[in-house]
Amino acid sequence: MGNLLEAIQSVRLDDDNDALVLLDQTLLPNEKVFVELKEMEEIWEAIYHLKVRGAPAIGIAAAYGVYLAAKKSAAENYEQLYADFKQAKAYLASSRPTAVNLFWALDRMEKRLVKEKDKPVQAIKTALKDEAEQIRAEDEQVCRSIGEHALSLLEPGWGILTHCNAGTIATAKYGTALAPIYLGQERGYNFKVYADETRPLLQGARLTAWELREAGVDVTLICDNMASIVMKEGKIQAVLVGCDRVAANGDTANKIGTSGVAILAKYYQIPFYVCAPLSTMS
């Protein structure tokens, strides 16, 4: 399973070639293409046009992107490097103004740069790379932890319904809502997963069904308006979804259609679980 997930890793740094490597999610499921991005304009365009998507993956891409901008800077001192960094940060931030993790990651990178300001320029650049790698590693650990907690709520053989895409290609690894499914797959739980197509951009059809199938999970793609019937027929024992934002009062915001699925789950008395990292919470 680990190797299968690594084969569809959506965001990684190729430091030797000064490149951000992304799985182009706009081409899925028909083509699996990894693109190498070396210019800030390319990284901006990739975020803006959803070549990379999913809150954690966007944050990781931004962290690597702003590191690469700093790495290429010809600055000879901290002040010059900071000016170049701020310019790159502002530019990347404009690619997706509503993406919380984008700003969170960029702000964290800036804090690390300021913390290292008394060091030589090259040492600061090395620290920025370290910070970006930590952001990626921490997200992988968070996703696995979400998966472990959620898996404790599920039983082997259950039917699971999910909406949109909150899987490994939206994060560093494992995903959020799909993390317990991947961990269950490793441990022989034999879940039967139903993936809503998720109109209008069809993330469930193009992405969730694709990545689960790539990992060998038993998955069935259904139309959004089929959720009620599979619940009524007793095929669903739990609903797992990701989350774009958790408000301070506990309200959640996610892809259009999630509210309808939640209402159906309540009607049919099916547990509905929102899987989210702390970085999405107010």
Automatic annotation (TrEMBL):
- GO terms under biological process: L-methionine salvage from methylthioadenosine
Q: Which molecular-function annotations from GO does this UniProt entry contain?
A: S-methyl-5-thioribose-1-phosphate isomerase activity; translation initiation factor activity
Q: Which Gene3D superfamilies match?
A: translation initiation factor eif-2b, domain 1 (1.20.120.420), Translation initiation factor eif-2b, domain 2 (3.40.50.10470)
Q: Which UniProt keywords apply?
A: Initiation factor, Isomerase, Protein biosynthesis
Family note: Belongs to the eIF-2B alpha/beta/delta subunits family. MtnA subfamily.
What NCBIfam families does UniProt report for this protein, alphabetically? eIF-2B_rel, PRK05720.1, salvage_mtnA
Query: Protein name, please?
Result: Translation initiation factor, aIF-2BI family
